Amino acid sequence: MIYLDNAATTFPKAPGTLERAVELYRELGVSPGRGNHDLAMRASDAVEEVRAKVATFFGAPDPTRVAFAANASDALNTVLLGLVRPGDHVVATRLDHNSVLRPLHHLAATGVIAWDAAPFDDAGIVTADAVEALLRPNTRLVVMAHASNVIGTVQPVAEIARRCAARGVPVVVDAAQSAGQVPIDMAAMGIGALAFTGHKSLYGPSGIGGLVLMPSLDVETSRFGGTGMDSASLVHTRSYPLRLEAGTLNLLGVLGLGLGLDFVSLEGVEAIHAREAALLRRLRDGLVSIDGVTVYLASGGLSDRVAVLACNVAGVHPQDVGAILDGDFEIAVRVGVHCAPLAHRDLGTIDRGAVRFSLGAFTTAADIDAAIAAMRAIATG
After folding, report:
1. Which among 8, 22, 316, 339 is annotated as catalytic?
2. Coil, strand, or helix at residue 132?
């Protein structure tokens, strides 16, 4: 099978990564932070080592401000529910995933906040001007996808954060698509909080992600439970990172995340991005040459994009295109609205969605050529 659905979950993982994670779990698979015996302490040390790797990878100064979560959606819920207060206003974007849009919709529907979504321009970019135009005196935060999971455009987060900082508004970044594909330095870019997931371009397993905070940003606890600290008190600890971690951690996931980070760091984020950008250009150029295939917002250079491309075939429903690619050509893609309804509404594809190709570190030129040939066959009947 040719796997071109890496924006959903990267597959395969780096050789040996999952095997090594299981091996470590066999050695250390107890509850970290829940005992003083040697094995529990070794497990805790392993977790803290990964926490430090995450902080370093994202340019954050304090590993204790790295809180593990189930995925990016979980982390975004943690930060949004922990920051907003009744009467606040929030700015998001029309490129955002439902992991941002649905929490905001819920908070607005229950009367807690008001929110607006900044539009993207003809190049697929949400400009700093577009975000700044929506800021109000009561704007509590700006939350935005660093890279679109539909069209792949990387947003000018640093400039947006600079404008927002002048107004005292922190920027929360959804890095689900960008982490591992483009370099991220939270301190240099002015990012207040960053949500990430392990199972995409960090090449870890599913079920692990996290929230990284700058020390200047405090997030209130929105879930409560055991932490292994202050157990005699009914008040959830205020200390980071346990302030945002209730219950026993997914130790196997944390170990796998650490090994995935090792792979990405060894390969180099810039090198991975350069290879994927070259393959994305090959795919884009091949698809636009096919009569009847529409590629969305993929003109010009591709160096400022992650390896995601959305398209449609005239006269063929995208669900059927996906089924033909899978059944006849053994090519896996994602079809539909991709949990990004506002983006598809603005693209004019909300009723049927689109076919999404997304590349990974193990995609080859032969994979791309096979996809182009398959799409040409579908477009020509």
Report:
1. 339
2. helix
CATH 3.90.1150.10 spans which residues of the chain? 2-11+268-379
Sequence letter at residue 334: R
Q: In Å, what is the CA distance from 182 to each residue of 64, 90, 175?
A: 24, 26, 10
**pTM of this prediction exceeds 0.90:** yes
Q: Which residues of 61-78 are buried (b: 16+ CB within 10 A; e: fewer)?
A: eebbbbbbbbbbbbbbbb
Q: Within the chain, which residue ranges are assigned CATH 3.40.640.10?
A: 17-267
pLDDT by residue, tens only, the chain of 381 residues: 999 999 999 999 999 999 999 999 999 999 998 888 999 999 999 999 999 999 999 999 999 999 999 999 999 999 999 999 999 999 999 999 999 999 999 999 999 999 999 999 999 999 999 999 999 999 999 999 999 999 999 999 999 999 999 999 999 999 999 999 999 999 999 999 999 999 999 999 999 999 999 999 999 999 999 988 888 899 899 999 999 999 999 999 999 999 999 999 999 999 999 999 999 999 999 999 999 999 999 888 888 999 999 999 999 999 999 999 999 999 999 999 999 999 999 999 999 999 999 999 999 999 999 999 999 999 998
CA distance 204 to 134: 37
CATH of domain 2-11+268-379: 3.90.1150.10
311 flagged as catalytic = no
